[in-house]
Amino acid sequence: MTVLEGVQLGIGLLALLAGFVMFGALPTLKTNGKPILMPVPLPSLTVIIPARNEAGRIAPLLRSLREQRYPSFEVLVVDDDSTDETATIASGFGATVLRNDTVEAGSGKSAACWHGARHAKGKWLLFLDADTALADADSLTKLVGSYAQKGARGILSLQPYHTVQRLYENLSAVFNVIVIVGMNVFTLWGTRFKTAGSFGPCILCNKDDYFAVGGHRKIQGAVLDDLALGQAFLDRDLPVHCVGGGGVISFRMYPEGFGTLVEGWCKSFAVGSKSTHPVVMSLTILWITGGFMSAAALISSIAAWNPAAMALAVFLYAAYAVQTLRFARRCGNFNKGLFLIYPLLFMFFAALHIYSLFRARVLHSVKWKGRKIEV
């Protein structure tokens, strides 16, 4: 075995172990078939859905809301200057449509969420992205019950389970892992590190806390509203609980096509890494580096036709493939077969991350839904 092969295998093995520390577990709402301890009386709930040109994506969410058994909730869809049939579709499902006709109309998700919150009648507020969908008729009940059991203070945020339908959507696999890991609270150390903020697609809070911290109005202009809103709650010593959404809520990211996927992840990673704890960031960099090293070790050993090195390299490559698959399947239903060629997923992640850094550090802007966002 050459020195180079030894170094590649050593880094790969170290990175494999770092991966288990980096992503120890992804807790979900634990019901285990047992009755949820519900608050009495049940709090009234307002579901707020900011929507800009979501005609092609919002129907599954509205359909799942219409099927909920929770007795006291309203649905507000904030039409944020849409030019499609978003408002018509929302009205057809019985949702109340609010047109954000203020001076902030069309200025983004935070402005739309704030507009909806100001018109909410419920005591608790649930902000949902238009591309999400609730898993079953008791999802709202699970959310409300879990929030109550956590003290009904601050934020309960869920990262939806990613449902994949088209081949290119599997390119989001590593991104989903990194987004969850980057919240700092899913390592083997649990909550030792302060959370980076909240997940954005599903946020539940009570109205009093929301307005006390200034809500989405306080963070207007932030590129990643989820991280900024969570930080606003933390700054007021209010808790932020982040969990996985498996069995409660799902979404399909960027179904419009590959270009939208690139824009969406570029926006997220242009500034998101700033909130990740340095230890978690170091583990993440090591894990990604190890993915490349394990593939390089396999190629080097085959080229040199070194049976001993080949055996170790094959073991490491297979272990990395299984680990990456395990991590990704916590986040979504990604194609199992693609993880046999997992280095391609790592290469796409690295290339897009470099591009996002170029957008943020050189161009100082990213694109999203027709908007140019300064970063």
TrEMBL record:
Position of the signal peptide: none
Superkingdom: Bacteria
Annotated metabolic or biological route of this protein: Carotenoid biosynthesis; staphyloxanthin biosynthesis; staphyloxanthin from farnesyl diphosphate: step 4/5
Any GO CC annotation of this UniProt entry: plasma membrane
A GO molecular-function descriptor: glycosyltransferase activity
Protein family per UniProt: Belongs to the glycosyltransferase 2 family. CrtQ subfamily.
Function: Catalyzes the glycosylation of 4,4'-diaponeurosporenoate, i.e. the esterification of glucose at the C1'' position with the carboxyl group of 4,4'-diaponeurosporenic acid, to form glycosyl-4,4'-diaponeurosporenoate. This is a step in the biosynthesis of staphyloxanthin, an orange pigment present in most staphylococci strains.
Protein name as it appears in the record: 4,4'-diaponeurosporenoate glycosyltransferase
Upper classification of the organism: Bacteria, Bacillati, Bacillota, Bacilli, Bacillales
